[in-house]
UniProtKB/TrEMBL annotation:
InterPro entries named in the record: GcvT/YgfZ/DmdA, GcvT/YgfZ_C, GcvT_C, GCVT_N, TrmE/GcvT-like
Gene3D superfamilies: Probable tRNA modification gtpase trme, domain 1
Residue span, GCVT N-terminal domain: 19-270
Ranges for domain Aminomethyltransferase C-terminal: 291-372
Protein name, UniProt field: Glycine cleavage system protein T
């Protein structure tokens, strides 16, 4: 059995409040995300996928750091960071948003939580938005305080996650709606829980607000989940690619704009607020984009794991783009991928060639997401 000291990048990489618990429960490998360890291996990733879609898994995602924005101008300031219209966002609501720079490039695609009228958390993907937000605030002339609070999320995901939540918090937790949050306590442990997650399945995130109680919280959840088949796990590349969910730095980065990803619905150019990137995004909308994200089904033997490099895509011998995320789906019995290709090469049904790690392979452009496109499982 691995010990926590077996993993070491040095003290500059932070450990989550759940680190020791995940090692105790079988975490075999970690990577680094937002300058922290994140468990990436509890054994067989295919079994992790089946555990997720059949029962439930508990994932340490404390790497989803929070940027807390408070103060009299908090709502106005948050709106300057994102092109999504927040004017109707209620206290207790969550929204998937994009944070863009002046060139319209995506800096992060977080979940925004509104805890009170002037109290927000930005729950981050992998990039330093704390520094960006503090920098934006310097000359903004707004009365805000921006910091990283003592908050560490867990994800409880899968069709039986609701039963586990009911065992932990009682029947009343069942009225928590998709993309809403609630403050709760578990035996005195302070939490915010939201009906969100990075799995495209029914799921919840539990935001611990006292890092000293991480080990205790992990064990309480695993104990409550035992009758429902709850397993320790890690975020599933298989399931998130099936669901067409983005992984920042892979499927999007600072040079990607929302329209290339088909996320124009998250850009509201008609609002009064002069959010960062507004002029650039208006230009992209008017002029169109030169490339777009598509889905691919790749022929050949099952991929051994997710791609670790960007694979070139060619059509009629000429490069037209690259695969950003690829994996074998044991449920669909197909190699599936998200890719960015030139806008004149996005016809569904078009055949292309992909330079995979094991050699060239034929592929076909398809619609994405690959499974449950209406997100009925997550929103049920």
């Amino acid at each position: 059995m691995a010990k926590s000291d077996d993993f070491g990048f040095g003290t500059q990489i932070r450990k989550s409040p759940y680190f020791d618990a995940t090692v105790r429960w079988g975490a075999k490998a970690f990577s680094v995300y937002n300058h922290m360890y994140i468990p990436r291996d509890f054994g067989d990733p295919e079994q992790n996928f089946w555990n997720l879609i059949n029962d439930a898994i508990l994932c340490d995602v404390a790497v989803e750091r929070q940027v807390e924005i408070t103060g009299p101008d908090a709502a106005k300031f948050v709106q300057t960071l994102t092109p999504r219209d927040l004017s109707k966002m209620a206290v207790g609501q969550c929204k998937y948003v994009l944070i863009t720079n002046a060139q319209g490039g995506i800096l992060n695609d977080p979940i925004l939580l509104r805890l009170a009228e002037n109290h927000f958390w930005i729950s981050l993907a992998d990039s330093d938005i704390l520094l960006w937000a503090q920098g934006v605030a310097v000359h903004a002339g707004m009365d805000v305080t921006i910091r990283e609070p003592d908050v560490s999320p867990l994800q409880l995901q899968g069709p039986k996650s609701g039963e586990v939540m009911k065992a932990l918090f009682g029947d009343s937790i069942m009225d928590l709606k998709y993309y809403w949050l609630r403050a709760v306590e578990l035996d005195g442990i302070p939490l915010i829980v939201s009906r969100t997650g990075w799995s495209s399945e029914l799921g919840y995130e539990l935001y611990l607000q006292d890092g000293s109680r991480g080990d205790e919280l992990w064990e309480k959840i695993m104990e409550a989940g035992k009758p429902f088949g709850l397993k320790p796990g890690h975020t599933s590349s298989i399931r998130r690619i099936e669901g067409g969910m983005l992984s920042y730095h892979a499927d999007a980065d600072i040079n990607t704009n929302p329209y290339e990803l088909g996320l124009g619905r998250l850009v509201n150019l008609d609002i009064e607020a002069e959010f960062i990137g507004k002029a650039a995004l208006r230009r992209f909308k008017e002029e169109g984009v030169s490339r777009k994200q598509v889905g691919l089904v790749i022929d050949g033997a099952p991929l051994k794991g997710p791609n670790t490099t960007f694979w070139t895509i060619s059509k009629d011998g000429a490069p037209i783009g690259r695969v950003t995320s690829a994996v074998y789906s044991p449920r669909l019995k197909q190699n599936i991928a998200l890719a960015m290709v030139s806008a004149d090469s996005v016809d569904v049904g078009a055949e292309v060639e992909v330079a995979t790690a094991s050699g060239p392979a034929r592929a076909m452009i398809v619609e994405r997401p690959f499974y449950d496109p209406q997100k009925k499982l997550a929103a049920a």
